[in-house]
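[audit] Reproducing an earlier prediction to check determinism. Same input, same settings, fresh worker. If the tokens differ from the archived copy the diff job will pick it up downstream; this log only records the rerun itself.
[audit] input (333 residues):
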Amino acid sequence: MRILIVDDDRLFLELVSVNLEKKGLADLTFAVSAEDALKVIDKQIVPFDCVLLDIVMPDIDGIELCTNLRQRPEYRTTPIIMITASQSAKQMDCAFEAGATDFLRKPLDDIDLTGRIHAAMLLVEALRNEKKSRKALQAVFDRSSQYDLIDPNKRTCFPDAEGMLDYFQFENKILQLVEGSYQAALYRIDMTDVFRSLRRHPSQNLVAFLHMFSKELGNIRLKKSFWYSYIGSGRFICCVIGRLPVNATSLDEQIDEIIHKTYQTANYLSSDTSSITKTSLNEQRIVSRSTLLGLIRSEFQSARNSVLQGLPEVRMIEDNIFAQISEAMTINS
């Protein structure tokens, strides 16, 4: 641990040096004024780990020097321990306002001094570890696809897919309806076969496919309210609802068109082995709010209970992330 000690009292510097070296803290640098300290600091390639500053010094005092250091990016989080013989509480307040980490009064107690230094060492180590972890995590994100952290077994929502709702937003939309009967068309879109097919094509990302399909559903245009959500396990639910008669044929046709377009765009799929199915969930077009709610909850529960074989579990994804972080930290160290 590299420590800079700044004090205009040379005898004090000598005593502190002896006491710290006895405690195993021998990498010490001394300055007898703030000006001298700034010259020493400017010459450093690697910043000091800890700084001890006397408050009362001629010309530039310790508080002003502390303020100066805190304005430097490399010293914004460095432990700075202020030292003074004064008993002034105001001086202590000024020191902390300037950015001091800790405060000690002369004459220094050896145990107290080394205790504060070791506390500063722990802080330095914690800051280093945090910085290293951030770099490692950023490295993982930098080399990862935007889709890598999404589990296609679970519900998800893409912000750039127009009108797409998270499942619980979808459910809340139903809950907000006034109790009564509604004209509605509720569908399940099931692409389980597509997921199985994509597992045989590792270059094709399942979540990227979901993203593409979700954005296509966002292009559906109806006169009534249209809601859709991905509920996991390769399933979407979508619904058009209103008090007046609903044109279910228009929704049928637009979904069929999207499915057809998907096969054309994703030419690695075969409609023979990778079917995307659309199923109506309500036989009667006039349904109550509670019926609709029961239908979508049943679909969501079914999706939760049918985790697809061969797809990565969240725990596996997390383990993979932490393994990458650990590897990146090892490389950075």
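[audit] rerun output stored. Observation attached for the diff report: The chain has a mean pLDDT of 82.
[audit] end
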